[in-house]
From TrEMBL:
Pfam families: Flavodoxin_2 (PF02525). Residues 1-216 form the Flavodoxin-like fold domain. This is NAD(P)H-dependent oxidoreductase. InterPro entries: Flavodoxin_fold, NAD(P)H_dehydrogenase_qn. The keyword Zinc does not apply. It comes from the Bacteria. It comes from Pseudomonas fakonensis.
């Protein structure tokens, strides 16, 4: 199978760099084809701007979504965007690998999402009407593909527990796993997480690699997070709120998980 790792760390000799190298070697040993988008090494441009549409007329107002749509439709996107979209088309599974920085993605990886996820490619897909709010949240251009986060944190696991001071990791990663991955159709696996990174010594690194190998071995067989599909009948249309009889009396991100 084809695996794309989108990797965001500025230092190849970092813990993340070592984990990335280990993941690539392990996946290749299992017979998978692997591509890595090493965003810092590529000097990936993270800022959305008018130059992303090579047909942008000088002096015209830059309209971010509309220009993205037009460039995608007319084949006038910048080459670096097209290359990353082609890698996504090629991949059967996508891994986003990053250190947790300020409770989210490093800016370069957020910029990759903003530029590569073009209008018509990752959003604005499918019929949009009061009866059908597009093909998204379980449908869309990435349907049939799998995705997983590989995340390291300075904080301890307990800091990210449901009652931990940082808020639960599930809640912190929800915008990425549900909003960035499930939205265009990926089946999202539970994340691979390595906490308390400053304490990782040789033994800790070996244990982290073993745990990582197990997760990589399940990339195409582990059950995904059971997010509810937008067009699966669980939501009122067009309000897009969960039907009142489902998870009755409950609120919060947990209601978007199927109980079965
Ligand atoms: P490194 O610093 O490269 O390494 C960590 C440890 O692993 C070191 O002790 C190193 O010796 C060891 N190591 C590295 N490679 C190996 C190897 N091959 N074998 C054995 N040991 C090895 N943390 C949070 O929890 N929440 C946040 O919101 C948050 N925000 C941050 C914001 C910024 C801007 C920064 C810089 C850090 C933040 N952190 C946060 C901490 C951050 O998540 C960790 O620093 C990061 O996950 C560590 O990953 P690294 O690859 O940079 O590790």
């Amino acid at each position: 199978m084809n695996v794309l790792i989108v990797y965001a760390h500025p230092e190849p000799r970092s813990l993340n760099g070592s984990l990335k190298d280990h993941a690539v070697a392990h996946l290749q040993r299992q017979g998978h084809s692997v591509q890595v988008s090493d965003l810092y090494a590529m000097g990936f441009k993270p800022l959305v701007d008018a130059s992303d549409n090579t047909a942008q007329q000088p002096g015209l107002r830059f309209r971010v979504s509309e220009d993205s749509q037009q460039a995608y439709r007319d084949g006038t996107q910048r080459a670096d965007i097209v290359a990353e979209q082609n890698k996504l088309r090629w991949a059967d599974a996508v891994i986003l690998q990053f250190p947790l920085w300020w409770f989210g993605l490093p800016a370069i990886l957020k910029g990759w999402v903003e530029r590569v996820y073009a209008y018509g490619f990752a959003y604005g897909v499918g019929e949009h009407s009061d009866q059908h709010w597009g093909d998204r949240y379980g449908e869309g251009s990435m349907a049939g593909k799998r995705a997983m986060l590989m995340v390291t944190t300075g904080g301890w696991a307990s800091h990210y527990a449901p009652r931990g001071i940082n808020g639960s990791l599930e809640a912190i990663l929800f915008p990425i796993q549900h909003g960035i991955l499930f939205y265009p159709g990926f089946e999202v696996l539970e994340p691979y997480v390595l906490h308390r990174t400053s304490r990782v010594d040789e033994a800790g690194f070996a244990a982290a690699c073993t745990a990582l190998e197990q997760r990589l071995d399940g990339l195409f067989s582990d059950a995904p997070i059971p997010y509810r599909r937008q067009n699966g009948g669980d939501y009122l249309i067009p309000e897009l709120t969960l039907k009142p009889e489902l998870a009755a009396g409950q609120e919060g991100i947990g209601v978007h998980l199927r109980a079965d």
